[in-house]
Design brief:
This protein has helices at 2-8, 12-21, 81-94, 97-105, 210-221, and strands spanning 35-41, 47-48, 52-53, 56-64, 68-75, 107-115, 121-127, 130-136, 148-152, 164-169, 173-174, 180-181, 184-192, 197-203, 236-241, 246-252, 256-261, 265-266, 272-273, 280-285. By secondary structure, the chain is of the alpha+beta class. The strands form three sheets. Strands 3-9-8-5-6-15-14-17-20-12 form a ten-stranded mixed sheet. An eight-stranded mixed sheet has the order 2-1-4-7-16-13-10-11, with no helix packed on it. A hairpin with a 3-residue loop joins β10 and β11. The longest helix is centred in the N-terminal third of the chain and has 14 residues, at 81-94. The termini are far apart. The model is unreliable at 1-18 and 24-29 (pLDDT under 50).
């Protein structure tokens, strides 16, 4: 298992470059029911937002001064930001599986969305009463000081998620999905598995097909570092949701053929990204 994981490590640069280039742009349109909260992610990755909101469906309207990924999570009692960030940094920069397991055991990940400067996004999450953190998880090394506390209290505003459903099932698979979606609209991302997941959708490069992508996956499993047959900009990239959770977000994508993927590292497989375990499928946009 460890030798297999070492072979997979050579794909880290390609995978990181891909995710860094993907953003989700929100089209203009009606906002779902519930409450709306404005979020600003500064250039230093700090987050500016209200410290207290009401329970129910919250539409986070996210603006960032640079590429960012806004994430909401609920920590287990006694799990301090410093501990969480230490575990996250060890897990995602050093492939420390013990740290990854601690982080997964002590956090409930409730969704997030990537944005860029001048490309705001709208994320909708239904939050019950409780205490949460919000932070920008795009930096390679996270800082505990950037984790903002969020208190959810008071009378519920109601509301429910909506959109075209994309569902994670069976740990490392995508559920049944229509073969095509419009170029703009709303996606309801649901996690019906026992693993954490996030959603990446990247367009296949001109002249490339799913056959080329599957060949790239086979090469990655053999430890060969080659560029993926994907357009490395545009597309969309969400934050992470834990088992049993869901979120909605607005999207706008160019017409083309895409690949849906999840790159969350699987602790039971030595940190192997889910995409290398078969969690990908083709999707037509437009």
């Amino acid at each position: 298992m460890r030798s297999f994981t070492r072979h997979l490590a050579v794909t880290a640069t390609a995978l990181g470059t891909l995710c860094a280039g993907l953003v989700s742009a929100a089209p203009a349109g009606a906002v779902a029911a519930g409450q709306t909260v404005n979020v600003l992610v500064r250039r230093d990755h700090s987050v500016v937002m209200p410290g207290s909101i009401r329970p129910g469906l919250t539409n986070f309207r996210i603006t960032s001064r640079r590429a960012a990924t806004f994430q909401i999570l609920e920590p287990a009692p006694g799990y301090a930001p410093r501990e969480a960030i230490r575990d996250a940094n060890a897990a995602f920069t050093k492939n420390n599986i013990k740290a990854l397991r601690r982080f997964e055991a002590n956090t409930t990940l409730l969704g997030g969305l990537s944005t860029r400067r001048n490309k705001p996004g709208t994320l909708s999450v239904k939050l019950p009463t409780g205490r949460y953190w919000a932070l920008d998880v795009s930096p390679r090394v996270l800082k505990a000081a950037n984790a903002v506390g969020l208190q959810v209290t008071g009378t519920s505003v109601g509301g429910r998620n909506s959109g075209r459903v994309i569902r994670a099932v069976d740990d490392t698979k995508w559920g049944k999905l229509t073969p095509s979606i419009p170029t703009r609209g709303r996606i309801w991302f649901q996690n019906r598995s026992t693993e954490n997941h996030f959603l990446v959708a990247a367009m296949l490069a001109k002249g490339k097909t799913m056959k080329d992508f599957r060949a790239w996956i086979r090469q990655a499993k053999q430890g060969k570092q080659t560029p993926p047959p994907l357009v490395m900009t545009g597309g969309l990239d969400t934050g992470v949701i834990s088992p049993g959770k869901s979120m909605s977000f607005d999207y706008r994508l160019p017409r083309g053929n895409y690949v849906l993927m999840c790159f969350w590292p699987d602790a039971d497989m030595g940190g192997t990204p889910h995409v290398l375990m078969g969690m990908y499928r083709g999707l037509r946009v437009g």
